[in-house]
Description:
5-stranded antiparallel beta sheet; 43% helix; globular
Amino acid sequence: MTTAPADLATLxxxxxTALPELALPAQAAETPEPRLMVLNVPLxxxxxxxxxxxxxxxxxxxxxxxxxxxxxxxxxxxxxxHQFGGFARLGDGRALLMGELVDREGRLRDLHLKGSGRxxxxxxxxxxxxxxPMLREYVxxxxxxxxxxxxxxxxxxxxxxxxxxxxEVLPGAVLARVASSHLRxxxxxxxxxxxxxxxxxxxxxxxxxxxxxxxxxxxEPYLALYRSVISAQASLVARWMLVGFVHGVMNxxxxxxxxxxxxxxxxxxxxxxxxxxxxxxxxxxGRYAYGRQxxxxxxxxxxxxxxxLPLLHEDQEEAVAIATEALGEFAREYDDALAAGLRxxxxxxxxxxxxxxRLAEPLLELLASGHVDHTSxxxxxxxxxxxxxxxxxxxxxxxxxxDAWLEEWRALGPNPDAMDQVNPVHVPRNHLVEEAxxxxxxxxxxxxHRLLEAVxxxxxxxxxxERYAEPAPADFGRYRTFCGT
Length: 485
């Protein structure tokens, strides 16, 4: 294996050093014809990487894992997870943690690859990724970042020149992504399943060091860690709900301890508002439907509590009581975060959360009953605050009910300018994503770059970009997404 020049990137190996039991040394598969499809130049600069050098053979070697920097220790991470409710021992079957970078603000960031080839965790899979799902993660994660939602970031997508066999033969690709870490609820679960309290404690200590340093100063640091993760996830899922994001596969191995959104597989944004919306092709029972996401998060956090019981108290019953009390705060924190977000979306002042709760329930019922486009309605609502209710009236069938609601809401003096700061014009609309992916599969990236430009500027309407703000056409049909493996 050749190596990139040492000054291309300096990668630390903190996870591999701190938790060697959970770090399997691995090597990326060679890429026959690597070709850079999209590069996140602002993120590269933020990480202290030279964007021009990332386009060289050495740079492509870093982005595909085939030429790791000198001293790097690429590993596949081991973890467990409840997948649709069933527990399994898992790990990075088609991914590598290349190591950690220190960005220009001194923050430690993981550089992680997806689709880099088989590891011993592959469980019969080919270890590869198709171009479409990798570009989907790039687009959606960039949109989430622009919306202010904690998320992993996409640094680059590199086509490998290898064909990938799924339902059809597809072009292969590697996604290089960045996160504050890839520690998951499933990481803690695996340590507990190993019945190794020392490993469990070291995983928790590593999480505290990386993400929740104030917990180290608490009288009971592991309880403080648990409470901090609960709080971070309550806030995160509330933000998902406010913008109509459906993760699609909320297994415990896809829930981070940092509170960042991770693993954009069968994900999508709502078109018509419907709490029962499911986009994933494998979620037949609707376990991770849009409206069930808060309950799914709470269930996952209960599994985290079970995993850290030995760190909470020596007595099992006492430990369970401590974890149960902490988990009881999730519902309150989620409800508070959602109410604060709804208040902002409705243009009401700080302190009017009770009004937001009272107004939101009948409004959302109205949207659901009329199959109203979620993003467009909230954006058009600002026009009603300015005195022109026709844009929202044109979207709803039950006009008497809507008019009564509007009268009650406008009596509170909503601020339309404030609403425009939180209700996006542009999200990655599903028909536009598919259009861009189809074109990219044929080698045309123009639509992909244009879609990225729109979603990276979500709150500003722009002349000539109207189609990026419009709902899906009537013939778009039911949307289904796939995990990509």
